[in-house]
Design brief:
Elements lengths: L9 E7 L5 E6 L5 E5 L2 E8 L7 H4 L10 H9 L41
Parallel strand pairs: 1-4
Antiparallel strand pairs: 1-2, 3-4
């Protein structure tokens, strides 16, 4: 293996931003800050979602709304949702029973002609 071209592989402290859980693993990733963990300073890498907070692993449904995108979607398409969803419009009075549409006369079918021979 060539020396000097591979990143260093070291212990890193991963922190789940949504649940606050921490774990130590080996990685080539680097963090901007360090934190003491069991007597050694480790670089900290923050992750948005991990197995501690992902709905598939936790069995809980959770919305991760970044920059109000869910609210904007609900307002735009008038979708019912969480507490921040736009209120649905009031139901209109039921319309009187509409008269059944008249069936239009079907166009007469073309008579079956002789098949052209080639």
């Amino acid at each position: 293996m060539k020396s000097g071209i591979h990143p260093s592989y070291r212990k890193v402290l991963f922190v789940d931003a949504s649940s606050g859980d921490e774990w130590v693993s080996y990685s080539t990733m680097t963090g901007s800050d360090t934190r003491p963990h069991k007597g050694e300073d480790l670089p900290v890498v923050r992750v948005d979602i991990s197995s501690f907070s992902h709905p598939f692993w936790t069995g809980q449904s959770r919305e991760v709304d970044t920059e109000g995108r869910m609210d904007r979607f609900r307002r735009r398409y008038n979708v019912k949702g969480g507490a921040s969803a736009a209120p649905a419009p009031a139901a209109a009075k039921p319309a009187a029973a509409a008269a059944p549409a008249k069936a239009e006369a079907a166009a007469p079918a073309k008579p079956a002609g002789k098949a052209k021979k080639k």
